[in-house]
User: Fold this.
Amino acid sequence: MTTLPSTPLRSRALALLAKFYGYRSFRPGQFEIIEAVCAGRDAVVLMPTGGGKSICFQLPALLAESGVAIVVSPLIALMQDQTQALIANGIPAAAIHSHQSEEENRRILDAAFAGKIRLLYTSPERLNLELDRWARLRISLFAIDEAHCISQWGHDFRPDYTALGQIKERFPGTPVIALTATADRLTRDDIASQLNLRNPYCHLGSFDRPNITLRTFANAKKKQRMDYIAHLSRKYPQDSGIAYCISRKGAEDTHAALQAMGIPSVCYHAGMPAADRARSLRAFLDGAVRVCCATVAFGMGIDKSNIRWVVHNNLPPNIESYYQEIGRAGRDGLPAEAVLFHSLGDVITLEKFADDSGRRAINLEKLNRMRAFAETRVCRRRVLLSYFSEERTCDCGNCDNCIAPPERIDGTVLAQKAVSGVLRTGSRIGVFTLVGILRGQMRSDIRREGWDSLKTFGCGADLSQDEWNDYLRQMIQLGVFEMAYDDGNRLRVTDYGMRIVRGTDSLTLSAYVAPTTARGSRGKKAEPESYVPVDPTTQLFEQLKTVRTDIARTEGMPPYLVFSDATLMDMATRKPSTIDEMLAVNGVSEKKAVRFGRRFLGAIRKFMGLSAGTPQGTSLRETLILFNAGDTPAVIASTRNLKLNTILGHLAKLIDEDIITTYSRIITRQQYDDITTTLASGAPDAFETLGQRYESCLISIAQAVTRAIARKKASRT
Ligand code: ADP
Ligand code: ZN
Assistant:
């Protein structure tokens, strides 16, 4: 990179962030990760979907003096998406994979060897095959995306990932950064050990996505589910949504039901012919169809920012999948909704999947936790976050249980009894034994250990077995205890639990409700309010989206790669009227400002009642931005779709104004000497002779340079 190595890393990183991404600051944790990787350290990064993981390895790749970063990614669609996004921002990136001809792959590899590619995406299989050949590349770092796939403890284990452990052995001095959006504590530790990372820097980002409203409904009929999807589709007429189903047939049925209701949708599942699937994906990404009925085969890495809602027609098999799937909604930070329909039938199907999975015990336990989430009467977000070991001691206010709360009780004393019950046994028991002790049951297992003489023995005899089970489940969900899956499901008291037992913190629980009355009671309430955009910013936002759709169509790229909704929202708020103001919008990189800026400026100026044309000097300014970004005149001309001569004309003007003071990228010494001596010869046909050899404006450039040199001399004397 052109930045001087002596400048501090932070300002160099910020400069690249502004230039290539159009962002002015890092999100919490991003810079620390970049700093660690740039210092050669391995890293494990946990950030929720949409948290901004990509920048954590892309910037170190750009900050490295030279070399290529190898990015391992499980899906080809994901690689294509990311390389397209990078190229749109002017970063040289490419992917090597099996859906591309070997000739194309070879061409890309040659470019990588020539140092022309900064980020190279590939699959784990391919990397394992090619590691020997690629060892001769200058590799700046390895990034392992969706790193939870390497762990048997994770919910999405992929055998191909296991061989990635050899990277660290083959390249001990090259930093490896592992990134994932979903992993409980066990999986997290396992990722680092499977990859043989050494003392990695760990970033544990918050999993909270407060803008997503969480709701669940038990045992809803098919008609109710379809009505709800139709309702969401109408509530957000500009935006998209996903309806997830457990089976291919479920996805097709949902698709058919929606079509019958007059709601256009596409279907997406692994059983469809590849071409149909690709067509569905395109239609959805381009915004031509706003609803996608899909199995979980759909969506990994889909960075579409205007997904407003995700409906689960069935219970997902574990909280990691659920979390990842709802995380596709509201990536722009604007309000979004996640609705989960679940039934006993789902549980039976999923239990069978677990039986057949070869990892029965782990998968059943994960299913149990998912089910508990669906059925809980406490704040759902707290349940989610405590699953990922994130402490949260107040309710979220944005889930069905918070919006229309069930009856609450002070559970502090109950929790104190339970925590001290666990502590007094030396933290060696699970829920079943604890309930026995609290209720004072004279069972042989309890007597054998002498636990019938504990102070807590029988201190909870006033509650039934069911009540204790329910309250203990809530306590686990609220983070009073953690369940040790790797250690016989024993209960471990958390810091929060310790504060409760010491009396420095408290706990609110939902009052126990016997199952018959609890069931189905959720089905009726909380009809969401309707959605009407009114204020001018929102109006402009909608118009900018139309501009984006047009650009996407003419450029043949998905709209979200033009600009994200968050960027359009910022644009609608700031209402830039010049190219420089446009550059101040969050998410507008230099490349995109020049490529797309005018069309948006036109719409904004019209909206503001200004003359529709762009202000004088815009074109000059655009050329300068690209020139400063390091582009040659020829590249600027092709980016801007203008004649080379026009660009040279701009540059001549900029030289005359002393805005550009280095000329070597515009005119070579030889050209300059040739032009100036020919002109100085005074020959009557000098211009004509030169005109045959050079663009006419290159002659103007030579003259402008001569004037600039004269000015410099004059100012020195
Ligand atoms: P993840 O891979 O974690 O799901 P991405 O890396 O795709 O997330 O980032 C999600 C969105 O957030 C992208 O649109 C990205 O450009 C944006 N983003 C990332 N970092 C920043 C930042 N520092 N400031 C503003 N937006 C950011
Ligand atoms: Zn809540």
About this structure: The first strand starts at residue 43 and ends at 46. DSSP finds 34 helices and 17 strands in the chain.
